[in-house]
Amino acid sequence: MAISLEQTIDHRQHGRLSALLSSQTFWVVVAVAIACIYLSFATNSFATSNNLYNISRNVTFTAIIALGMTMVIISGGIDLSVGSVLCLCSMILAVTMHAGYSIEVGIAAAIGTALLVGAFNGILIAYLDFPPFVVTLGMLSLARSLAMVASNNTVVFEFGPDQKALLSLGGGAYFGIPNPVVYMIVLALITAFILRWTRFGRHLYAIGGNERAATLTGVPVRRIKVAVYMVSALTAGIAGVIETGWLGAVTTNIGTGLELQVIAAAVIGGANLAGGVGTALGALVGAALIEVIRNSLGLLGINAFWQGAFIGGAIIMAVLFDRLRNLRLRE
Hints:
Layout: H1 5-21, H2 24-42, H3 49-74, H4 82-98, H5 103-126, H6 132-151, H7 163-171, E1 173-174, E2 177-178, H8 179-197, H9 199-209, H10 211-216, H11 221-247, H12 258-268, H13 280-299, H14 307-330
Antiparallel strand pairs: 1-2
Helix pairs in contact: 2-13, 3-8, 3-9, 3-11, 3-12, 3-13, 4-5, 4-6, 4-11, 5-6, 5-11, 7-11, 8-9, 9-11, 12-13, 12-14
């Protein structure tokens, strides 16, 4: 029996709707929207322009690193060092500019440091078969220690002749949109393009889905693993440069515990720690939910110590959602 055009369109629409409703990212977006609507009515300060400006700016640092973390998780790995790498890159930038060098030299030094750290992690993991957890946990301590050595464990707040340019880089705005938000959107679009349309992105999903099968089909697994850890460190370095310009000072405590928020953002947004699943949009909405939770605690008069409990609960719910979805697909 011939199938009509209307039936074909209806089948496609039904399939898209089912895919949307089964998407963890979609439900996180819904959760963020509901939380924002509720807070707008429950408090007088949430929907103000200043608070929304702060939320949009604060979410960017976690979101930018979550983009790189999502790519690592897609490949089946993990990177616990990103908070310390952010600290190290921020300090390298600050110390370089404090010594009188230009902002271009400072940024190049910070980004170069990030790439070296990422390459070191990747080589140990890909070529020497070290567990990602062990390597990046070691780098978490090593990078922060190097930041202390570079600054003699002091606060750096003078950035030489290009200080105004650095502060404008992180603290300025385009047409009322904070600069960090603009950078986040651009990086998210680049990440989404890489994951969706490039061979590198397809290889990432293949490695995370079945590394042995990917190797047998000719995927350069080791080179891609090194590259993805370099990307992860690079996003931490970029976030470090931006955050330095926003804060106007760098201490060796910057980025402490950030790796947990970044991993949480990626997982909440739909990345599967087993590998093979994740999107750039998911990283953004996961980071947004975490920031809305953090912001709402103070506005509702809830003790800030509950932040970890709420974020941890969100992670467990995200994993539970993924588990239920997998059971449904098996049935």
